Amino acid sequence: GDSVTQMEGPVTLSEEAFLTINCTYTATGYPSLFWYVQYPGEGLQLLLKATKADDKGSNKGFEATYRKETTSFHLEKGSVQVSDSAVYFCALSGGRGAQKLVFGQGTRLTINP
Amino acid sequence: GAVVSQHPSWVICKSGTSVKIECRSLDFQATTMFWYRQFPKQSLMLMATSNEGSKATYEQGVEKDKFLINHASLTLSTLTVTSAHPEDSSFYICSASNGGANTGELFFGEGSRLTVL
What we know:
A: mainly beta, 0% helix, globular, B: mainly beta, four-stranded antiparallel sheet, 11 strands
């Protein structure tokens, strides 16, 4: 079945550092790919998405490119802030239920000032 | 953006009792809601798809008689954990779609932590 594997955390960085959180997937067909973020005490929020190969999703300085050849959707940000501290989930949807999401295990990110 | 609220946010119960968790879409109508379960340091696992006015669709391995789902209105879905046992202790999360089947964006509740003693 479909699956998502993402970088194990926790990840701790200093403010203004470069961030990469790796995400690879296994899926039949052509899934859509997502990054969700969960801030402390809040529900998951959609951060960005890409629906086809070579698409780049971007939001709040974060970017991820849908790479079909490497089945990857790595999350990057050039300069992180303390407010980016959260848990990040990579996810895919596909098959007959486009809204049924398969999640990675989540990566906890802590940014120190 | 749209808001989805879960209640209670945490609950402790004795083994053998039943617990109901509510998921409400506060400012939009949701024909479809999803229930997930998250174990510590693990991914969210989809339990079931809840459709307003019809029976829920359960994922393989999820006991439908154990986890009762009711979606009686366009703004409310409930998950009842029947005869709860310690192994049911987990974080339960719902999401709701603001579109029709297979469309729209998903919005997530803040989660409900269940501890069964």
